[in-house]
Amino acid sequence: MLDPETIRQTSQAFTRIENGKISSMGFSPRWDLGFAENWLLAANVGFTPNEKWKPTSVPAISDDISSWPVLWNKQNLEKCIEGLLSFNSDIGVSQQDDFAFTYFNMPGYQLVLEGKVLYWPMKASEYFKLPHSIREQLRYRFPAVDHKIILTENSRFIGIPRGSKNRKAALEFARWLFVATNQEKIWKEMESQQLLPDYVGAFDGFSSIMQVNETIFLRYFPEYGQNPLLPAAIPEPARIPDYWEDFSRDFFASLARSSDV
Fold first, then answer.
1. What are phi and psi of 25, to 5 degrees?
2. Is the peptide bond between 237 and the residue preceding it cis, with omega within 30 degrees of 0?
3. Where are the domains of the chain?
4. pLDDT tens digits for 103-126?
5. Alpha carbons 231 and 23: distance in angstroms, whole number
């Protein structure tokens, strides 16, 4: 795994500036704000809905965050934001923008292959969709905060709506789905229909059943054996508000204006 400090130090050592312009750059959270959002979630910032806030009320402009629709751990948020801002703090934002304008007309993994960047954030599902000829030239590592890998905010769940009809059949299906041999049947069916690797398995990503990852996933994507998931490094998925996407977009837009993150 790669912890934030390792990413920051190796990125700083990799970055080169020639004639006032960046010729190569290790990594910047500014490249993918979605990744930065997931970084916050992994840092135990604890964004949760405020149960005392009424959706019909008009949000008041107040320094008292307890009156806001979303609550969080102020200390952990400040610590995480400080960590994000520490990346490339000695490089001007305009220089970083010029670098992105010059080189970001190609896929991120291509920038890695050409030595323009050291790291590029990708979902595992997107990485394993790359052609084998590309993957064999790359190495993937899991970014981690406090020894726990960074999950995306859209980890998938299965649930049965309260009050739905035929709950017994739905429960039987859920039980069937969480059996390794049955997930293997789905993989084989997807293979027969030539859906792989356009979709990385039944859930377009890793299974919550580690046995499936260690056997079936590995069978279809041998590169996974380079760096398999470790159960101890998998955190509980963040329980975020339904309106997280809109909130996080506005939150980071405001942060970018005020802090040049």
1. -145, 135
2. no
3. 1-155+237-261, 158-235
4. 999 999 999 999 999 999 999 999
5. 39
